Amino acid sequence: MSPPFLTGQLLLAMPGIGDPRFEKAVVAVCMHDERGALGIGVGRLAPRLGFHALLEQFDIPAGGSPDAPVHLGGPVDPQRGFVLHSLDWGGQDTMEVDGRFALTNTIDVLRAIAEGKGPSRWLAALGYAGWNEGQLDGEMTRHGWFTVEATETLLFETPVEQRWSAAFQSAGVDPRLLSASAGQA
């Protein structure tokens, strides 16, 4: 039996996951069904890249938008941009995620944010994490991932460097007590 679909959850990488790209990763699962899964990493920032530089690449004036840091969304297609945002804005190809947040990867969201007409809460990311059919389901049965509810507080208010620990704590887990190895019964 496969685990329940995880859309709208945060995947937290357990210590010792075995893939350095995902050490202490926090991934917002935006799509998970029988065909596979797609998530946006929200636990790491792209070094020396701000939102204004992203806008500049599309010749969009920054307007009054903040020069927020850009997240490392994942190892797949790292040049492709995504905006994870609150549900108070929707545009071309916006995907609502389990009534919790939305995902847009079209330029209209960048323009809206720059013009002060975009979502009230948002974060930009480059790249995504993707899993083929059944791949994430299989990973969930082994030591590696833990899930918690993706709340607006965790996504948009918790500082990035605290997000992994805060997400575990939201589930009543002290991350300092986690082991990098799994036991066997």
Structure description:
- The protein has 185 residues and is of the alpha+beta class.
- The protein has a single domain (9-177), classed as VC0467-like, CATH 3.40.1740.10.
- It is built from five helices and ten strands, in the order ββββαββββαβαβαα.
- Strands 1, 2, 3, 4, 5, 6, 7, 8, 9 and 10 form a ten-stranded mixed sheet that branches.
- The protein is globular, with a radius of gyration of 16 Å.
- The relative contact order is 0.22.
- This is UPF0301 protein SCH01S_16_01290.
- Belongs to the UPF0301 (AlgH) family.
- Pfam families: DUF179.
List keywords for this structure.
5 helices; 33% strand; globular; 185 residues; VC0467-like; 10 strands
Compile the SSE list and pairings.
Layout: E1 9-13, E2 26-33, E3 36-41, E4 45-50, H1 51-57, E5 69-72, E6 76-85, E7 95-97, E8 101-104, H2 107-114, E9 122-131, H3 135-140, E10 145-149, H4 152-157, H5 160-170
Parallel strand pairs: 5-9
Antiparallel strand pairs: 1-2, 1-10, 2-3, 3-9, 4-5, 6-8, 6-9, 7-8
